[in-house]
Amino acid sequence: MRNCWNRLFLEERPSIGLAFFRIFVAVTVGFHVLPLFFRLDENYLHTSFKTLNYNFFTPEVITLVQKSPDWLVWVFAGLFCLSWFCFLIGLASQLSCVLMTATCYYFYALNSFYVGTLSWDILLVTLFLMCSTPYHGDYFSMDCLRRGDVFAYRRQRPFFIQRLLQLQIGFTYFYTALYKISAEGNWISGNPIYYLMHYPPAGVTKYFLLRDFLAQQPQLCYGLGIVILACEIFFVFLLFYPPTRITAIYLGFIFHVTLILTLDVPAIFFFLFPPQLLLFIDPKGVIAWVEKKRLYNQPTQRSRIIYDGHCGFCRQSLNQLKIMDIFDIFQPVDFHRLNDPTLLHAQLTKKTAASQLHLVEPDGKLFGGFEAFRRMCFSLPMCYPLIPVMYFPGMGVIGPWAYRWVAQNRYLFHANTTCRNNACFR
Fold this sequence. Notes:
Strand content: 5-15%
Helix content: 55-70%
Number of domains: 3
């Protein structure tokens, strides 16, 4: 029994899946809460209409929160935005998660009219589990860049939290199915899908392909309902049984895509549950795939990053690029170690190499400074969110100017006092 417990919960495995899941948790919370701040007067200030959830909070907590002056509501809104953004980018990920979750509970106690749903309660449970672990910032985060560990993506961590998140989504499906066949449910005795095609007001059911056809097929609607019910009952077993796990993940994705296309449902069903299904993929298999890609790229002609090895700021930046380069696509080259940089590219001299970072692609194309970084973003998964920013209108002018200023003053960014007057450059 002890060996089984250790294997299921305490065995150490790479935490890259949990780090990836953190981003989707942050996105889901943002979709739930941030829009409510655009009209604080209607949602949370003293002028708002409020519904209080005494089933979730004690009367003492509700009474205390309701005494909040409007300025305190603004403070909590600002604290949420700051902690949410830090959690999204993985900066002090555990602390930011705790602060974000605390503010979520505050606004829930302040007014449950807009977020008092079952999906919101499920999201709060997920946030509570995320608060209890410090290692969802091991990768895809600012934390991993600050630590400087090039192999952070394969760091071993206890599997306990990830297993609890797996159990959460598995039993969410299971108990949803039980509700459909309980005293309040009618999926066996009734025909809820057929009902949705005819009776709900506008806004409950979307107008989707085949809706008119289903509205004329009561037996087909009933059969679809029974199939959905059966899938939800057995879904938890399909997910935890290795031979059927991948099939169950595909079915889960299809189910949630269909749900979002046909019904007006909370964002959690689309933004959180499908990524949570990916937690069932063995992280050891993910790391094995990454290592295979890195091994494949080793003997091939890779893009070369030409940098200044005498600059501490440049070396630190290069180390962060190595962390983000999970597939080992780029080969760093210190131009000081090159007798003749023109052998790499005809336009590359020691003077030009000292002025800014350069990228030499396998086909011989040369890019420098901001343009080089913009090109690298397409090969660095952690930089994918920056691609729209890099190509935003006006960045072709602002980006190179900002990069030139940093490059010309890069020695001032180094902690060593001898570098503050560019002494190491001379």
